[in-house]
């Protein structure tokens, strides 16, 4: 796949800006086209926030532990994760294949940093649901811990609030933790996944 160069991106930005200008009322003075192009280019820049995503690229072995409810015994699973950068380093894709709750399991994760919202956004889908699970959040000051939250559709009705934490232990190991937020504001850990880079 050919990654668009800066000139191509500039062309795309100009086309988008032209569409924006065309949609303005006739009596409106169009904003400066160069400023519009600059805004589009800045929104699409690859920054150090995207460089963080490269840490997930590669092949990983994953061990998972899940808790269905507070006080319930855990179940174990695991599998393999393949991580790859896409769209010129703007997003990372994680493909998971293994077992979960004693059954074959396949999942797909897309994570990126939105320059406009100034947040890391994660989209998750898997073969146990037809829903899109979404999370949004930020990294800590040291840059090793990603905290995200989201409201997921509950098959029993309504939504369930989820908090997730991804922590890098080293360049070759990270831990993902998922917490379910209870109606009273409390929470319990529902999953932990420890990922080690394959050598």
Walkthrough of the structure:
16% of the residues lie in helices and 50% in strands. With 199 residues, it is α+β, with helices and mostly antiparallel strands. It folds into two domains: 6-44; 49-197, Beta Barrel (Lipocalin), CATH 2.40.128. The relative contact order is 0.12.
In short:
By secondary structure, this protein is α+β, with helices and mostly antiparallel strands. It has helices at 6-22, 33-43, 48-51; strands at 58-66, 75-86, 91-100, 103-114, 119-126, 133-139, 145-153, 159-170, 173-181, 187-197. It has 2 domains: 6-44; 49-197, Lipocalin (Beta Barrel).
Shape: globular
Poorly predicted segments: 1-11
**How many domain units?**
2
- Regarding quaternary structure, how should these chains be classified? single chain
Number of helices: 3
> What is the C-alpha radius of gyration, as a whole number of Å?
20 Å
Largest sheet geometry: 10 strands, antiparallel, barrel
Just give the CATH class of the largest domain. Answer: Mainly Beta
Strand order of the largest sheet: 1-2-3-4-5-6-7-8-9-10
SSE order, one letter for each helix or strand: HHHEEEEEEEEEE
Strand content: over 45%
**Helix proportion:** 10-25%
CATH homologous superfamily heading of the largest domain: Calycin beta-barrel core domain
Which key phrases capture this entry?
10 strands; alpha+beta; 199 residues; disordered N terminus; globular
């Amino acid at each position: 796949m050919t990654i668009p160069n800066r000139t191509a991106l500039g062309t795309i930005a100009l086309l988008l800006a032209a569409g924006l200008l065309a949609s303005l009322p006739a009596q409106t003075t169009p904003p400066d086209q160069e400023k519009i192009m600059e805004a589009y280019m800045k929104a699409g820049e690859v920054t150090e926030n995207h460089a963080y995503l490269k840490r997930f690229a590669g092949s990983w072995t994953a061990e998972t532990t899940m808790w269905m409810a507070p006080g319930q015994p855990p179940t174990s699973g695991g599998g393999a994760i393949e991580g790859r950068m896409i769209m010129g380093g703007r997003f990372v894709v994680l493909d998971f294949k293994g077992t979960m709750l004693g059954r074959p399991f396949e999942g797909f994760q897309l994570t990126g940093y939105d320059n406009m919202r100034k947040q890391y956004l994660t989209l998750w889908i898997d073969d146990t649901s037809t829903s899109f699970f979404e999370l949004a959040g930020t990294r800590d000051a040291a840059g090793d811990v990603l905290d995200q939250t989201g409201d997921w559709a509950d098959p029993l009705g309504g939504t369930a609030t989820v908090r997730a934490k991804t922590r890098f232990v080293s360049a070759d190991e990270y831990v993902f933790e998922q917490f379910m937020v209870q109606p009273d504001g409390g929470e319990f850990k529902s999953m932990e996944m420890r990922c080690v880079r394959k050598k």
